[in-house]
Queue: 2 jobs
Job 1
Amino acid sequence: MIPIVTIDGPSGSGKGTLAKRLSSELKWNYLDSGLLYRCYAFFYSREQVNIREQINKITFSNLKGKEKILWQGNDITNDLRGKGITLLSSELSQNKEIRQKLFLIQKSYHKKPGLIAEGRDMSSIVFPESKIKIFLTAAIEERVQRRANQLRNAGQKVNISELKKEIQLRDRRDSERTHSPLSISEGAIEIDNTYENIEITIDNIKKLINERYK
Ligand code: DC
């Protein structure tokens, strides 16, 4: 079996940082499923007809930790990470048909030598066969600060109390929706990432990989 580590959690819990570090150290494939939902919302808002085809035209790069997403030569990173698409992706992700459309694209990332997949339903729906399921959480205040830093780094203005409300709204929607809500799967390891040292978490996951995917 091609090994998989699934990492689920709410926005700002640090799953992106953890997943990227793991995939780059292990040289495994990396699936940022939230980014696929964001791409979907982006093309939906532009009334593109064949969204799957458009998603295939996107290229992702991450140079020295700086993410760049290109579509037909245009840099759409700020569009995808901005407020409008953030809210629209959360809204559209409640739709069962849209989730089904993205299911096979997500599955296609499961390739040798292994996969680190992050999102909301990686452990429960998309890769339930994963032998290492992580559920990452962090205190809301910490998550708001992380998101604020992300936005400031992207040159955007931040209103902390508005941002907190936005994150709480998204949390509620992502956890209470009918289809594939964010939840802790059976057998998942819950890690509170508020004060946890990422190096220790990475070491622990690598040990689990050696134990469970021999
Ligand atoms: O992880 P993110 O913030 O980039 O995700 C954007 C939205 O996509 C999020 O509000 C909910 C949705 N999403 C989802 O429904 N299922 C996933 N596996 C990943 C993201």
Job 2
Amino acid sequence: MSNKTLQAVSNLKGIGGETEKSLAEMGIATLHDLVMTFPYRHEDFRLKNIVETPHNERITVEGRVESEPSVLFLGKNKSRMQFHLLVGPHLIKAVFFNQAYLKNKITSGQTITVTGKWDRGRQAISVTHYSPGPKTDNVDFEPMYSLKGNLNQKKFRKFMHQALQEVGDDLEEFLPLNIREIYRLLPVKEALEGVHFPKDADHVKQARRRFVYEELLLFQLKMQAIKKVRKEQNRGISIAYDINKLKDMIGTLPYELTAAQKRVVNEICKDLREPHRMNRLLQGDVGSGKTVVAAIGLYAVITAGFQGALMAPTEILAEQHAASLHDWLAPLGIRMALLTGSTKTKARRILLEQLANGEVDLLIGTHALIQPDVEFKQLGLVITDEQHRFGVEQRRVLRDKGMSPDVLFMTATPIPRTLAITAFGEMDVSIIDEMPAGRKEIETHWVKKELFNQTINRMVMELQAGKQAYVICPLIEESEKLDVQNAVDVYEQLTTIFHQQFKVGLMHGRLHSTEKDEVMRAFSEGHVQVLVSTTVVEVGVNVPNATFMVIYDAERFGLAQLHQLRGRVGRGSDQSYCILLADPKSEEGKERMMSMVETNDGFKLAEKDLELRGPGDFFGRKQSGVPEFKMADLVHDYRALETARQDAEKYIASREFWTSDETKCLRTYLEQSGALDGDRID
Ligand code: ADP
Ligand code: MG
């Protein structure tokens, strides 16, 4: 970057003291920072036809004042001013809030220009921008920035103008000419002018198009570069598993693998053989059979003389995995161990010794696996189940336990492709997109909350038939405490209703993890028939006898989460039911309920969820991993994303990219971003 662009903003006229501080708060220190600060939207000041403008939309009109403004004072600094305005042949009302000082400036007969929200019913504009006279100036679009401190839009635009004048010709062009030509993208300076001082609608659009592409290309280049470097480093272990033993093991399974399971097993085995470190995400809808795939991968590394580890987010899930894998692998002579928070000190000590000596082939457990004193003799493969529940840091610690074990992350949250290639862009992805044959589709019904009693009656029928049920409690955004209160209320209500007839259990996030496991165990062993729970139950548990689920306030949940919750039933061969108790107010809420009723396909729901709620909410409040883009929007710009990804792939694979002058900027960017540093082995 040239020195000029790195000049401090305080070199501009009018910036110092308070203003400089406000800019700093916005993360702006240099002229480059300033010009790269993008508005959150552009205000449209083009004249519009009121007949064609929908209710509540912003509009700019020019008209003649037809009545003297009348002002109503509404108390402290509050006022409402109103007059009639003739716009073409239409007489409408112009309403001004808290701008009574304009009264003396506006007189009957004058022509003025106003902008504001159009109230179609009242035929009135609630004015936010006023200028005397007809619309003369040629500003059609004004950028609106999120500002801090003492800044206002007008002042900020003045600084922006100066900055662009100053450094417009010194800005570095990241996009090679041929790319700009193919996609007809504006050069950086013109694009920045289009963002900050657009000539017209098309200028705004073209400017945006350029920066969306640039942003996505840079990001994808980074992801692809990380992948390439990891593969070239060959710092992993090549695992020479015994294919015949593997085939025999698959032959002993109680069912045939689905085509999708076979495909991902092959993808995983190929990675195991390669000398690079596997870094793979395995996605498969709830119930698609990921556990057995994990077992096959783990068995493969064991046949090559390595150890394997499987980490689950809860104790109960770890126990369930241990039981399944024991069925499949113990007959083959595999020595397995379970390590959780409740493993007793003495047993733990012995286990750790055996693990370090290589007397244990396969370790299954919870976070207890990543404590510092857990050492393997020769760890070859680490698998984490329901990976979105683990933090990035925990994943790293586990990975670093072996020299360079291969790593497989499994998740039951179907991730739309656009998000997968961004949030997990540096990983390889395998997808199980097929369900084992013979599953009955879960029947989902959306009912009004007032039908709660009927729902309970229906539930009783299932319970009387020896089945079990989940009742998921009302969700209160942002307040775990209230969620718990709700769960307790529902629990008490149901306990009263069922008397001694059925046993009700209670599960929520405030319980100690040993208490949670106890409740879960009682439920999975059938001592408890009805489990009242907050969303903590959403992850992985397998109680095939549970066939009925009620979800309170279903409209408050996102689709991905509803689908995860629903996945707790329908795990056996019996027909299962999911009842959504919901009175959604918004169209979007209704649409979500309809989607749940219509499909059991997690990927379809995930795409819908992304479309309805946007990428920020997709992984829930606490999850991130999805980068924040300044311009690009993963819902609407998915085509650009796909193009950028393909271009990035081609670039990274081509010799020219690494040598040509045209792409020097991009290479410098990659170097500075650390993408070329490769895996660190600490
Ligand atoms: P998830 O992908 O949600 O972790 P699981 O691994 O728990 O799913 O599998 C769900 C159920 O499907 C288990 O009872 C499992 O034994 C069964 N299953 C897995 N693969 C197959 C298959 N190919 N054919 C029939 N049943 C299968
Ligand atoms: Mg699972």
